[in-house]
Specification:
2 domains, two-stranded parallel ribbon, 6 helices, mainly alpha, three-stranded parallel sheet, about 50% helix, about 120 residues
């Protein structure tokens, strides 16, 4: 966390440290892909020849004004569609449990991706 606090940009391949950086309002240059890719929260590099230009854009940080709001929306989407409680949370924080996770895993193996996406939402 100290390193993120000291940097102007957090560059990552696919680390979850990008969430720490975003919470600290530090721009993130995403060289790899994870659930943040394409969400308008990170500066996504999709080809090696884009690194320098993306770095310059991240330094200008045009996403700064909407970052807090967009991160809150993303967190709500994660909670709704991607996070599952396996009985470890006392307060029932997550809305989906292990049985639903098993159902979605089964769908992802047996069904086209569109059917799985429709089942999540």
């Amino acid at each position: 966390n100290v390193c993120i606090d000291l940097c102007d940009i957090a560059a990552t391949i696919a680390s979850q440290a990008c969430y720490v950086a975003l919470q600290e309002n530090t721009p993130v240059m995403m060289i790899g892909r994870n659930q943040l890719t394409g969400k308008g929260l990170t500066y996504d590099v999709t080809a090696a020849d884009m690194i320098a230009a993306t770095l310059r854009t991240a330094l200008d940080d045009p996403l700064a004004g909407s970052r807090a709001h967009d991160l809150a929306v993303h967190a709500a989407q994660l909670e709704q569609a991607y996070l599952f409680d396996y009985g470890t949370q006392d307060a029932g924080f997550y809305t989906r449990g292990a049985a639903e996770m098993a159902r979605l895993m089964h769908l992802s193996v047996c069904e086209p991706v569109e059917n799985v996406i429709d089942a999540i939402v």
